[in-house]
Amino acid sequence: MANEENKNENQENESPSQEEQPIEGLTAEQVAESSYDATEVWNKNKNSLFSLLGVIAIGVTAVSWFNSKEYEDSAERTSRFIEAGSEAGAAEDRFLSFAEDYDDTLGGVAKYRAAIIQYRDKRYEEAVGSFETAISQMGNDPLVGRATIGLGVAQIKAGQAEAGKTTLSGVVSNMNLLPTDRREARFHLAVQAMEEGNDEEYSTQREALGNDLNASDYFTRLEELDRTRGLLAVAQSLPDLNREAGEEFLAKNKERKEVNATDSGLQYEILESGEGDIKPLADDEVEVHYHGTLINGEVFDSSIERGETSKFRVDGVIKGWTEALQMMTVGDKWKLFIPSDLAYGESGSNSIGPNETLIFEVELIGITPKEIPLPPVDSNTTDVNSSSAEAPLVIPGLDLNTSAPGASEVNASIPADGNGSE
Fold this sequence. Notes:
The chain is an alpha+beta fold. Helix content is 52%, strand content 10%. It contains 14 helices and 7 strands. The chain has helices at 2-14, 28-33, 38-84, 91-101, 105-120, 124-138, 144-157, 161-173, 179-196, 199-211, 216-253, 303-306, 319-325, 407-412, and strands at residues 260-261, 267-272, 285-294, 299-302, 310-313, 333-338, 358-367. Strands 1, 2, 3, 4, 5, 6 and 7 form a 7-stranded antiparallel sheet that branches. Strand 1 and strand 2 (267-272) form a beta hairpin. The protein is elongated and about 145 Å long.
C-alpha cells in the first residue's frame, strides 16, 4: 500500500502545471524559442485596422448627416407650420399648402386648422372635406377627437344631420379619445336633439352629462340653453298673445256708452272738458300731463308720478296720441285706449311688449305760442312800435269779450278795423 501511495504521489508531481501546458499546435520547445515582434504584428494588421476605422468613420459621418438632415427638415417643417397661421388673411391657403407637402400628422393638423377657418366662414361643405382629410392623416394624435367633433358639427350645419349625429355618436363611444371630447360630443348631440324636438334623445344625453361630475360645465350650459329656448318660444308667441288680448279688451271696452271710437280704431273717454275751442295742429308743441298703463293695469310711464309736465310736438308721438290731441281743446282730460298698430306695434318699446294695447289718461295743459317772424326793418322809419310783434298767449278760460279783470284794457288795444277806428 505504501508503494502505491508513493507511486501516485510521484505521478502527481510529474504532471505539468497549467502554465506549462503546450499551446495547441506548438510544442513547448517551439513556444520557448519564439519571440514577440510588435512591429511585425503592426505591419501585418495595420491595413485591416485602417479599413475598420474607415468604415467606422464613414458610418458615424453618415449617421450624423442623416440626423442633421432630419433635424433641418423638421425645423423647416415646424417653421412653415408656424408661419402658416401668422397672417389670418392667407392662413387657410398656407395650411392647405403645408398639408399637401407633408402627408403626416403635422400635415393633418394643418388641414384641421384650415377646416376650422372654413367652418367659421360658414363654408360647411368645404369644412367637412377638410376635417375628413385631417382625421385620416392625424392617426392617434390627441387632436383627432377635436377634428372628429368638428366634422360632426360641420356635417349637421351642411344639412347632413344624420351623418353628423353618427359621427358625434362615434366620438362618444370611442374610449381611445379624450374624455372631454366625448363629453362635448354628448353636449352637441343633446343640442341637436333639442333642435329636432327629440325629447327622448335629449333626456338621454342630458342625464349622461348630469351623472358625470366632470361634465358639470356642459350640463350647466345645456340647462341655460334649454331655458333660453323656452323663453324664445314664449317671446315668439308673445306678439300674437298680446294682439289677441288687446283686440278682446277693445271689443268689450267699445260697448261702454262712455267710450267713443274713431275710424282708425282709437277709443277715447272724455273725463273733463276744457273751455274754449282752440285745438292744436300737428306741428304745434303742447304741454300735457299723462299716466300710461297696460291693459292689465301695469304702469309703464307717468308724468304725474314724476311730478312734472311734458312738452312735445303733436306729430312727434305715437299715432294714437297725434290723432287724439288734434281733437282735444286746452283743459280737456281724456282717457285714450290705443290699439297696438296706433302705438308701438310689434317692436314694442322698453317695458311695452310687442303688439301691446295701451291706456293713457291725458290732460292738455296748453299750446306753446308760435314765434311770428319779424317784418324787415325800414331804416327810414322812426316807429319804434313796428320793431317787434308777438303772438297772443293762449290762456284757458279767457274770453276777450267778457268783463274779466283786464278785459277792457285788452279790448281797448285792439282796433276794430284797419284804420284804427272803432
